[in-house]
Design brief:
Layout (H helix, E strand, L loop, with lengths): L2 H29 L2 H6 L6 H15 L2 H13 L5 H14 L2 H7 L8 H5 L2 H18 L3 H27 L6 H8 L4 H15 L2 H12 L6 H14 L1 H7 L5 H31 L11 H19 L3 H11 L24 H29 L5 H29 L5 H37 L5 H27 L2 H4 L2 H24 L5 H32 L5 H9 L3 H13 L5
Helix pairs in contact: 1-9, 3-5, 4-5, 4-14, 4-15, 5-15, 5-16, 5-17, 6-12, 6-16, 8-9, 9-12, 11-13, 12-13, 12-16, 13-15, 13-16, 15-16, 15-17, 18-19, 18-20, 18-21, 19-20, 20-24, 21-23, 21-24, 23-24, 23-26
Length: 586
């Protein structure tokens, strides 16, 4: 094996890893928010977790990415450690699909259709279709499919390069002598684990073993321990990703390692005990690419069947290794935030950002309603809670916006891009709603501290206005949570009605001042309240317009508002409904 063969082997590995990365990224974009919604279905049922873990790993073609995702979710308090165990087991099974695809390389036949099944042949068709989708289509979904096809073609090209590079090894005596060492199963496990840990891809490691198997020099006795070691080595990614996280998140990596170590010890022990009692004839026979795929799948399936009933015990092992157990985050807005590791799976990170922004919307609405209630019944405890919520909204507006900007630089699907755009436009308004709640609270406190009261007329007028404010807050929050464009269209007509109510209340206040039925001091407080109520409705309008315009793939606020305010029949109908509903008594 000369220098050129080594360069070819290295280049083939590079193509293989790059193709795997491109294909995995494309598949993840295609899956979009379905990854996160699937993980949300996790229950105490380990079988359901197992199936979801296998399904998601098949979808993104990377058990390492799956494990890193789990570390991030546990570190953020989104998932519990116990929920991840079944997913980890399922991901180990799901990742064996790549080995089965690579096994097709070993097909030898003169039949055209059988030859077409060889990846090196049909991947060329994939490459051609993929480049057409990328260059000819403007549909981002088709472009993503094209990227997946091209990634697969590059992966298979890398596999072919590696196979060609190692084929001369079959005729080298030195290589045969080297392989004798691999008859020691412990050495095989070690080599498989170390090599996989270095390249951080069990799929690539198994692929290289399959390429070596094409030389006819690898036996079942050599391959089986190596494959088991490769499954241990893939835990390196989880170990690296657990650096700097909570102990609960570190336990995800411990569970992953424990699963593969126990499986390796048990399977190797049983295998060699059986071989000692009844010598297995196939152990010294050459293994092919298909045989490696079969062994890889059998090992993971058997280990899963063996350990699935003992998920609680695996959790206890992790707790013993890391004794100072931290409780998972309670999931409240103030103590939970997304882990940076989720940036590796943008669709999951975006979905969780959306969940947090929805929580922000709910907190902003509730805080405003509390502050409005305080104007008629002020309590110190209520004021303390309002101030705490406002600080929390400030913190999350800052952190979410920074996180979303970082996510924007990732490879995203069209749907995920829309979600980020909607959130970036809305979270600033949620934060400002919290500011106005504090301003209303100050007015309420002044009324309480000075023992002031509005006149009966002003009280009745404010009751109508605050009811309208409560409805616009509820509609806006519901529309944002459901991403409901139709519900969003009801916000602007109500905002116009609120503007008219405020203008009318101001005029009536001036009349009362002129006839001496109200004081200047009460006028200042009323003016502050009306100004904040008006700004609250404006922010609700901003949020609703963001929902509507982002879903329409545009963002021209003025054009939209001008279009609906002048001559839009549906707008006028809703406006008339709210105008009749919220009318000041004569």
């Amino acid at each position: 094996m000369d220098l050129l063969s080594l360069i070819t082997l290295a280049g083939g590995l590079a193509f293989f890893l790059y193709g795997m990365h491109v294909m995995s990224t494309g598949l993840e974009k295609m899956a979009g928010g379905k990854l996160e919604s699937s993980l949300k279905k996790m229950t105490a049922n380990p079988w359901k977790s197992l199936l979801l873990g296998a399904g998601i790993t098949i979808a993104i073609q990377s058990s390492s990415a799956m494990t890193v995702m789990l570390v991030g979710l546990v570190n953020s308090g989104i998932m519990e450690l116990g929920q991840t165990i079944g997913v980890i087991m399922g991901s180990n099974i799901g990742t064996t699909l790549t080995a089965w695809l690579l096994a097709l390389i070993g097909i030898e036949s003169d039949n055209f259709w059988l030859n077409l099944l060889k990846p090196e042949n049909f991947s060329l068709i994939f490459a051609f279709v993929g480049i057409i989708f990328i260059m000819m289509s403007k549909d981002t979904r088709k472009q993503d499919i094209g990227t997946i096809f091209l990634g697969f073609a590059v992966l298979m090209f890398g596999m072919r390069l590696m196979s060609d590079a190692v084929s001369p090894l079959a005729d080298m005596p030195q290589f045969s002598h080297l392989l004798v060492a691999f008859r020691n199963p412990l050495l095989g496990v070690l080599v498989g684990a170390v090599f996989t840990g270095i390249i951080q891809s069990s799929a690539a490691s198994v692929g290289i073993l399959q390429a070596l198997a094409l030389t006819g020099s690898i036996t079942y006795g050599m391959a089986i321990p190596i494959i088991m070691g490769q499954n241990i080595g893939t835990c390196a990614t989880a170990l690296i990703s657990s650096i700097g996280v909570s102990k609960n998140a570190k336990k995800v990596a411990i569970v992953h390692i424990s699963f593969n170590l126990i499986g390796t010890v048990v399977c190797l022990t049983v295998f060699y005990c059986v071989n000692a009692l009844m010598p297995l004839a196939f152990i010294d026979q050459p293994i092919g690419t298909l045989g490696i795929a079969v062994v890889h799948s059998i090992f993971n399936i058997v280990t899963t069947i063996l350990l699935l009933p003992f998920t609680k015990q695996l959790e206890k092992i992790a707790n013993l290794v890391l004794r100072d157990q931290e409780t998972a985050s309670s999931g409240t807005l103030s103590d939970t935030f997304l882990d940076e590791r989720l940036l590796a799976t943008p669709s999951v990170a975006i979905s969780e950002c959306n969940n947090l922004s929805v929580t922000m919307a709910t907190v902003a609405r509730d805080t405003l309603l509390q502050s409005i209630r305080a104007t008629s019944l002020y309590e110190q405890s209520l004021g303390t809670q309002i101030l705490k919520n406002e600080d929390t909204l400030d913190l999350y507006e800052d952190r979410l916006s920074t996180y979303l900007v970082r996510l924007s630089s990732k490879a995203l699907s069209a749907d995920d891009t829309k979600k980020i755009s909607k959130m970036l436009h809305a979270i600033g308004d949620f934060e400002r709603l919290g500011d106005h709640a504090v301003n209303i609270l100050r007015a309420a406190k002044e009324l309480h501290d000075k023992g002031l009261h509005f006149s009966d007329e002003a009280t009745r007028e404010l009751a109508v206005l605050t009811e309208a404010i409560g409805e616009i807050l509820t509609i806006t929050t519901d529309a944002y949570q459901k991403n409901d464009t139709n519900l969003s269209t009801r916000v602007e007509p109500l905002e116009q009605v609120i503007d008219q109510l405020i203008a009318e209340i101001k005029n009536r206040h001036i009349e009362r001042l002129q006839r001496g039925a109200c004081t200047i001091e009460m006028g200042f407080i009323l003016s502050d309240l009306l100004s904040n109520y008006e700004r609250v409705s404006d922010h609700c309008s901003n949020i609703a317009v963001a929902i509507i315009e982002v879903n329409r793939n545009s963002f021209d606020t003025h054009q939209y508002l001008n279009a609906v305010k002048y001559g839009d029949k549906a707008f006028n109908q809703v406006f008339d409904q709210y105008a009749r509903k919220y009318t000041l008594a004569s």
